[in-house]
Known about the structure:
Elements: H1 8-20, H2 26-30, E1 37-40, E2 44-48, E3 58-62, H3 77-91
Amino acid sequence: xxxxxxxxxxxxxxxxxxxxxxxxxxxxxxxxxxxxxxxxxxxxxxxxxxxxxxxxxxxxxxxxxxxxxxxxxxxxxxxxxxxxxxxxxxxxxxxxxxxxxxxxxxxxxxxx
Length: 112
């Protein structure tokens, strides 16, 4: 059985992509991107969505890792309240918009 070798260019692409990490970790990288960050404090960061589905599309992300809504407990309530209040204060500067903002949580984040 013969084994084919990948062209050098393909090997280099694989090596460079493995250094960047898995695609699902994109939000962690975006949380540190100063061009995307519009607000940051000790508990959360608000970033512009890289692929907006609306005129204003922001993500409010906790610094704390929470893998799923199923992992939430009553101990997370202050964090969730902080996310909600901060998000509502943030969007108040767009109050001239005739379209109301919608808020939601991802049950299982597709990215981290």
